């Protein structure tokens, strides 16, 4: 019970399809370690599903809807979480979207939207939750970045590369600015993870789903994609006191892929 008596607010706690997405698994993993969890998602039904799983296992959870591109929406969920549970100890940012195309294919509105979701979410959730951390003199931020922040992954998604690179440095900035206030911030960079999202946003790049799975497995030195639970386990570690002397770290969870010279 590494997180007993702590409160975690997880943005992007729903899943984009049947199965386990990174945010859904993280929310449940936090609860299994004793945290009370606010499950936040733009789709309230998806957040409610995750919260119900937590409650069915004997944990405490609430489900709320929020749009991470709208500050008032994010602030309202942070206030509701603090009111319900009395505090916020862990901020987990999992919201992200992939848009394919380079500068010549992307229209400006799509590019801006991608940055607003992927990087703007880090800004708005931090803005909403940091006052709670500062008042207590403690807190942990876990941002979900991507291996795409530091490597070409084989996919033509220029805006996503730019956005996740920004998430990495934003995390470092948070870690350094607020270290003296007892606040830690780290990012996880998942590599090729088998989640519902890839079947909705990545599979169109391949001839078939089977071809996609085989190709992605082949790129990982360990021989297979990771799962959402691999990312969740890293999040629990970074949020716990086991990582009390770790801040500003960009942690690959990628089966060794970041050690290679190419995708």
UniProtKB/TrEMBL annotation:
It holds the Pfam family adh_short_C2. Belongs to the short-chain dehydrogenases/reductases (SDR) family. GO terms for molecular function: oxidoreductase activity. This is 3-oxoacyl-ACP reductase. It comes from the Bacteria. InterPro entries: NAD(P)-bd_dom_sf, SDR_DHRS6-like, SDR_fam. The keyword tRNA-binding does not apply. The lineage of its organism: Bacteria, Pseudomonadati, Pseudomonadota, Alphaproteobacteria, Hyphomicrobiales. Keywords: Oxidoreductase. CDD domains: SDR_c (cd05233).
